[in-house]
Amino acid sequence: MPIELVHNRVAGVNYDSQMPLDPFADDPNDPASFLSPDEPAPPLTDEERLHVTQDLALVARFREELTPHGILGIFFLCEDCDDLHYYDWDIMASNMAATLRGELAPVHEPSLNPDVDAYVPWDYAAGFLDGINTSRR
Ligand SMILES: [Zn+2]
Predict the structure, then answer these.
(1) Domain ranges of the chain
(2) Residue 111 alpha carbon to ligand 1 centre in Å
(3) Is 0.85 topped by the overall pTM?
């Protein structure tokens, strides 16, 4: 579930209380000292980066193919809020781009007053794209 990959990293983690002790605590070459305080997120693993990069490319395709059909974005059930969140394609893309830059995306700031009929689950959008690709072969 791509959205969960992005969402859980941001919403569910408290680095202050859950991180193991810093192994570089007494090391003057602590790699963390090179990080700006504005970029609190840990670096993505190569696998995570690949995932998010692929998702970002998918979102661009979703926007291209689904917007003409009146579909403006994705919704999913947020386990923190126990409520549905609605994301425009642009918000999705900027959240993923922020993740790739090592910044935390504002997952709990969904689109305001969404037209709920214009949003679909991620899997629906992926299936829609598969259908288009199949019919063009
Ligand atoms: Zn939420």
Answers:
(1) 5-135
(2) 12
(3) no
Cα–Cα nearest to 76, from 131, 128, 116, 129 = 116
Query: What residues have their beta carbon closer than 5 A to ion ligand 1?
Result: 78, 80-81, 108
Cα(13) to centroid(ligand 1), Å: 13
b/e map of 39-57 (b: 16 or more CB within 10 Å)? Answer: eebeebeeebeebbeebbe
Per-residue pLDDT of the chain (137 residues; tens, 9 = 90+): 454 444 444 444 444 444 555 655 666 565 555 545 554 567 889 999 999 999 999 999 999 999 999 999 999 888 888 888 899 999 899 989 999 988 877 666 666 678 999 999 999 999 999 998 887 66
